[in-house]
Structure formats: structure tokens, C-alpha cells
Amino acid sequence: MAKTKIVIAGVTGRMGQALLEGVFADNDLQLHGALDRAGSLQIGRDAGEQFGKNTGVKISSDLQVALNGADVLIDFTRPEASMVYLEACKIAKVKHIIGTTGFTAEQKSLIEIAASEIAIVFAPNMSVGVTLLINLVEQAAKVLNDGYDIEVVEMHHRHKVDAPSGTALRLGEAAAQGLGVALKDCAVYAREGVTGER
Question: Which residues are marked as active site?
């Protein structure tokens, strides 16, 4: 069986490095491309160098070259970059896994439209535990109804730039769904948008 050819966007970042480790650990996956922003000092280096591996895949900012022949682009970057990747994936007919958070409503709508053209996994949190929690929050909100106030409080590393996080927003959406209302009609935010590092 052929290996799934993976391109990792933001390969030098925290999540990019974790994804790279995951690709190296899975015999069914093959690193096909490694993307970083133009001007990065890592451009031209072997993507596996930090792990003592010679992959033959050089870190690049050339999206079209990276996607040529790829099966999937995995993207945990920033909303602006994700939208560029989304358009390129549509053109190249490459599947797109989006773990980026901080999208506007308009950007989310564009992702939804693109999903009619290519396969997309769009999730603010990929953890099984959080997925279960989201379902439990919706059920709890249905049972408790409007007799209780619901508040989502979160804590992150100091480098997180968007607030609330995608996970917090998804939990809020689940609670709102359980109550039968739209989150936009009932949410109150302490911090909102790309506010910079904490």
C-alpha cells in the first residue's frame, strides 16, 4: 500500500515539530513537503535535521512545489496563512487538515465552501478527550437549561496570540447549542481576536 504523502505547514513551529515527529513515527506516512514562512532562517535545511534524520525534504516557502504530488496538507499556523493554504489546496486538489484557530466568521464560511471541493478536517482541537468534553457540555446545557450561567475559563502558554481559543469557542458553541441559542447572541468575551502574546 502506498504511503500517504504529507506536507506540514509551519513545520518549524511548536505544533509543526510535533507533527513532524508523528509523521516519522508512522510507517504509513511519508513527509512530502515542509513549509515555513518566506525569509525564515530554516529555509533550505533538511526538515528532519532537528531529529537527527536526513529526510531529503528541504524546508521551503514554495507552496505550489510542496503540494505537487502531495495527498494532505496539515496546517496549524495562523488564519491568514491558512486561507492561502486553503486556496492552494483547492487548486492542487490536496486534502487539508486545519488545526489553526482565530478565524473570523467570514473565513470559517470560506472553509465550509471549500469543503464542497476538497476533503477538509477543520477542528480547533484534535484531542479525543476534548471532543468528548464538547459533547458532554452540550448535553449538560440541555439538561440544566437556562437555570445556570455557563462560563468558559481557559489558560494557555504565554505565546498564544488569539483569544478565546478555538477550543473555548467550540465549548461555548456546544453550550449554546444545548440551550438552543446562537453563541453570537449570548457570548460575552474578556479578550477577543488576535490580541498578541499573553
Answer: 156, 160
Q: Distances from the Cα of 15 to the Cαs of 81, 139, 175, in angstroms?
A: 15, 31, 28
Write down the pTM of the prediction: 0.76
| 74 three-class SS | strand
d(CA 74, CA 82): 10
With 0-12 CB in 10 A as exposed, 13-18 as middle and 19+ as buried, what is 17? middle
Domains annotated on the chain, with CATH: 4-122 (3.40.50.720), 128-194 (3.30.360.10)
Residue 96 near residue 142, CB atoms below 8 Å: no
Residue 95 dihedral angles phi and psi, to the nearest 5°: -65, 150
For 143-161, what is each residue's pLDDT tens digit? 998 888 888 888 877 777 6
Inter-CA distances, 28 with 5, 12, 92, 107, 132, Å:
9, 22, 22, 32, 27
- 131: part of which helix (H) or strand (E)? helix 128-144
Q: What is the mean pLDDT of the chain?
A: 91
